[in-house]
Design brief:
- The protein is built from 5 helices and 7 strands.
- With 176 residues, it is of the alpha/beta class.
- The protein has one domain: Rossmann fold, CATH 3.40.50.
- Helix 1 crosses helix 2 and helix 3 crosses helix 4.
- The protein starts with a strand and ends with a helix.
- 24% of the residues are buried.
Length: 176
């Protein structure tokens, strides 16, 4: 809550920061991370990257696989890097769990998130497998922001075009 001086009195203004949950189990995709960060920025939202390291109930004593732990660290670091670069607040969470969907549901609810960001692609899985995404849509209450990413070939052509346009803009700006 902020009080602003308004004429002879004060005006109360409530600041509400929305939060977007970004669940992750595998597959660090930099283009999807950048999209999530820019979406949070456009909504003046805090991005909540939730890295879930899956452990089996039966094998809990064995712990998690090392490559899953490393992917989790890489994901959280990549999100942090993009967030700092774009001045987006984050609340990183890393969790060992045997119930991925239950954990996502818990954090979406308890963190008072506006919605859950889910990335899909025709050519690859992005952050979660397809079965997990289906179960989140069915079992996790609240909004689901489903972002369909283009295939890499189509995206590369688009990126080349954007780079070319930005170079042209740079030429126009510097020649003025």
């Amino acid at each position: 809550m902020i009080l602003l001086l308004h004429g002879a009195g004060y005006l109360e203004v409530a600041l509400s920061t929305s939060r977007l949950l970004l669940p992750f189990t595998h597959g660090v995709k930099s283009h999807a991370i950048e999209y999530a960060v820019l979406l949070a920025k456009s909504r003046n939202a805090t991005l909540v990257p939730l890295s879930l390291i899956q452990v089996q109930k039966e094998c809990a004593s064995k712990g998690a696989r090392l490559e899953h732990i490393q992917q989790s660290k890489d994901f959280l670091e990549a999100v942090a890097h993009q967030a700092v670069k774009n001045d987006v607040p984050t609340e990183k969470i890393e969790l060992f769990t045997s119930d991925v969907i239950g954990s996502i549901s818990f954090y979406a609810d308890s963190s008072d998130c506006e919605g859950v960001l889910l990335f899909v692609s025709d050519s690859e899985e992005v952050f979660l497998d397809r079965n997990q995404i289906k179960r989140i849509i069915l079992k996790v209450a609240g909004k689901h922001h489903i972002i369909h990413l283009q295939s890499i070939k189509r995206q590369n052509a688009g990126q080349k075009l954007l780079k070319h346009i930005s170079q042209l803009n740079h030429c126009f700006i510097t020649s003025v």
